[in-house]
Amino acid sequence: EVQLVESGGGLVQPGGSLRLSCAASGFTFRSHFMSWVRQAPGKGLEWVANIRQDGSEKNYVDSVKGRFTISRDNAENSLYLQMNSLRAEDTAVYYCARAPARARLDYWGQGTLVTVSS
Amino acid sequence: QSALTQPASVSGSPGQSITISCTGTSSDVGGYNYVSWYQQHPGKAPKLMIYEVTNRPSGVSNRFSGSKSGNTASLTISGLQAEDEADYYCSSHTNINTQVFGGGTKLTVL
């Protein structure tokens, strides 16, 4: 059974940093693109970033470029999102998702809530 | 990277059919057959319903179907059921190797 479990969310002050993790199991992690998607409270989904199987390609939405870094550890079956210079508008539930093909997110975690507030 | 355009809400009675539109540009929806649709119930993670415009993942009811014409993709749900009431999001690959979602459509089953 495919499982994705996010962790690392919490309350952080504006300008602060946070590192999200996503533990993957039940499939060959190193064979799949992976993505992060977020959802602000009461709002719609926003794609944040993705990363190629070997980590050689990373893509980001404009609003997080230069502040967020996606990475992965295939030996640990884990996906990460390092978030720096956090802003109030980054407040959201962050989901990790498996991306077997373009725009196709077939398995999602339960999400982890990030709150940026003073 | 502008969001795709979806109607804010649609409604239908049980047994009826509804269609949700998703309009983008030639840089996303119109340029690729990589359009997907997601269903999200309150407090839950999204669920993939359609991928690559018309394909259904295993386990998704054949009451759900997708199509595309030009820069607009559509999701049709036939034989509406109470459990179909949810938010629906379209998504597309883009010409800069990112992915973009629509603003979401709230489906109400009357």
Distance between the termini of chain B: 35 Å
Helical fraction of chain A? under 10%
The structure class of chain A reads mainly beta
* Low-pLDDT runs of chain B: none
Quantity of strands of chain B, as a count: 9
Strand content of chain A: over 45%
**Count of discrete alpha- or pi-helical segments spanning 4 or more residues of chain A:** 0
What do these coordinates show?
The complex is a heterodimer of chains A (118) and B (110). Chain A is mostly beta strands and 118 residues long. Chain A has no helices and 11 strands. In chain A, strands 2, 4, 5, 6, 9, 10 and 11 form a 7-stranded mixed β-sheet that branches. In chain A, strands 1-3-8-7 form a 4-stranded antiparallel β-sheet, with no helix packed on it. In chain A, strand 9 and strand 10 form a beta hairpin. The radius of gyration of chain A is 13 Å and the shape is globular. With 110 residues, chain B is mostly beta strands. Chain B is globular. The relative contact order of chain B is 0.34. The chains are: A mainly beta (118), B mainly beta (110). Chains A and B meet through strand 5 of A and strand 3, strand 7 and strand 8 of B.
